[in-house]
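Q: I'm building a small set of examples for a reading group on sequence design. Run inverse folding on the following structure and report the sequence directly after it, with nothing in between.
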């Protein structure tokens, strides 16, 4: 019998199962924190292979700082992975995200990671978002000089990366670091979604995005998918601010020092909407 791997603290996502969850069509919304006296809630949108669980640390962090936040399982992702279809595209994700925003029924700060930046930008073209935060974003297809990525075989579902790639590209971990808990959470992805991102098929009209925004670049990101200068170009294209988090890997929300990225987001939030009341005890969070 094999011995179970140790779970690294940053790869323990079990907290997601303790938050209030509401099904909205093919999506699931998780909520943390209480309605703030001022400032809109954050809505965290995961990227390819990921679900709302990848933001479980962020949900707790922002709740402790007095902010309400949500994370969403888009169709076919996270708890909704059984609904993944080969024909699912990024526009479908954006449509479901818009429905999730309307369910919240308040202006939200949309936070999109990696591929999740694309449905965020499409949704922001349709709703009155309060702000946009992009984390290691995929580029819009009409970004001048954007770099394509070789496509995956069309049709069917693409299994998530193996442990070695998860360690190096997603989490920035050393070889042989235990990642079973992370790999078990990843879901297969629609090849159509991946190829729409890789082949730059999703165009965004910056004129239709009327809110402030910021792009946080992961300084330790994969140069094949995020070549030097691309994140800054995305920010410039959209009229957003750009900041480099030099020591963060691609999935900064569950990196070893994820608190550094969360703090950067909190500081940027405070620059727009005012400072929060400061950290609360864990027991003060709104939990299930």
């Amino acid at each position: 019998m094999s011995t179970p791997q140790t779970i690294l603290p940053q790869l323990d996502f079990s907290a997601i199962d303790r938050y209030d969850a509401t099904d909205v069509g093919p999506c699931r919304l998780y909520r943390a924190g209480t309605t703030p006296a001022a400032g809109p809630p954050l809505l965290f949108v995961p990227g390819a292979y990921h679900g709302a669980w990848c933001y479980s640390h962020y949900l707790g962090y922002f709740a402790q700082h007095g902010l309400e936040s949500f994370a969403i399982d888009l169709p076919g992702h996270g708890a909704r992975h059984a609904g993944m279809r080969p024909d699912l595209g990024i526009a479908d994700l954006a449509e479901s995200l818009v429905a999730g925003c309307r369910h919240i029924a308040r202006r939200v700060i949309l936070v999109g990671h990696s591929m999740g930046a694309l449905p965020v930008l499409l949704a922001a073209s349709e709703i009155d978002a309060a702000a946009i935060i992009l984390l290691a974003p995929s580029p819009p297809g009409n970004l001048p000089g954007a770099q394509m990525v070789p496509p995956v075989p069309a049709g069917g579902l693409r299994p998530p990366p193996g442990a070695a790639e998860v360690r190096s590209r997603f989490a920035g971990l050393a070889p042989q670091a235990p990642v079973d808990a992370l790999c078990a959470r990843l879901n297969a992805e629609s090849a159509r979604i991946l190829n729409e991102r890789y082949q730059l098929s999703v165009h965004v009209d910056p004129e239709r995005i009327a809110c402030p925004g910021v792009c946080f670049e992961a300084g330790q990101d994969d140069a094949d998918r995020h070549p030097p200068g691309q994140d800054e170009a995305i920010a410039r294209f959209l009229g957003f601010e750009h900041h480099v988090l030099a020591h963060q890997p691609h999935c900064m929300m569950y990196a070893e020092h994820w608190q550094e990225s969360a703090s950067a987001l909190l500081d940027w939030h405070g620059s727009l909407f005012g400072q929060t009341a400061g950290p609360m005890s864990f027991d003060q969070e709104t939990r299930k």
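The helical segments are 56-64, 90-104, 117-124, 163-171, 180-185, 191-198, 230-238, 258-273.
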